Prior knowledge:
Layout: H1 3-14, E1 19-24, E2 30-34, H2 41-53, E3 57-61, E4 64-71, E5 76-80, H3 84-95, E6 99-103, E7 119-121, H4 125-131, E8 138-142, H5 147-159, E9 164-167, H6 171-183, H7 188-191, E10 194-195, H8 207-223
Parallel strand pairs: 5-6, 5-8, 6-7, 8-9, 9-10
Antiparallel strand pairs: 1-2, 1-4, 3-4
Helix pairs in contact: 3-8
Amino acid sequence: MDPHSLKRLNSARAARRAVALVTEMDSGRDRVVEEGDLVAGDLGEALAKAFRTGKSGMVEIEGGEFFINVHLPPPRLVVIGAVHISQAMAPMARLAGYDIEIIDPRTAFATPERFEGFRLDAEWPETVLRDRPLDRYCALCAITHDPKIDDFPLKAALAAECFYVGALGSRKTHGKRVERLLAEGLTQQQIDRIAAPIGLDIGASSPAEIAVAILAQVIEAFRKREIAGGSVSG
C-alpha cells in the first residue's frame, strides 16, 4: 500500500469517517476514497453500495478488476434515558453490532446495577456530548419524556446529521416539542427528521417490545441512509 494512502486511511478511521481503499488489481495501484467524494460511473455506484452495506469485495468494471476494502465507523447508539426500554434495548443493540451508551443525569435511574456491562453516564447530555460529540454514524434516541433532558441532545443530533434521531412521546407531546425547537431556531425541515412517536408501528406495548420497535427503526435508517455529499454516482 502507498504510504500516503495508509496515512489518509488511518486518519479517516481515527476521525470516524467512512473510507474505502480501492485497489486496481492489474497494476496494484491504490487510492483512498472517503464517503462523499465524487467518483463517476460504475465504480462510483460500487463504492456507494460498499459504503451503504459495509461489505468489501471485488468488482469488475469496464474490463478491469478493483478490490474495494471499505471501513465504516462502528455505528454508535446513544440513548438518553436510563429507563426500562433502555435496559431491554442495550443487549439487543449489542447483538446487532451497535456500540450503545446510556446517558441520564437522574442518578435514581442511572445505576450500574441496572446497566451492568454497558457504558452509562449519570451526567447531563450537554456534558457527555461535549466530550464525545455525535456524528453521522450515530443514532440518538431520546426517551426520558423530560424536555430539560431530551431537547439538547435532539438539537445536537440534528446539527450533527445523525443517521437516526428519535424521540419518545405521543403526537401531542411531540407537537409541544416541535414548538420548543422552532422557538430555539431549528427549521421545520430539521425537525421533520425526528422519528416521533419513536419506533416502527408494530403495536408494541411492553418495554421490550418498544425496544424492538426502536432498534428495528434504527437499523432500517442505517441501512437506507443517504451517502454523505449525496450519492457517489456517475
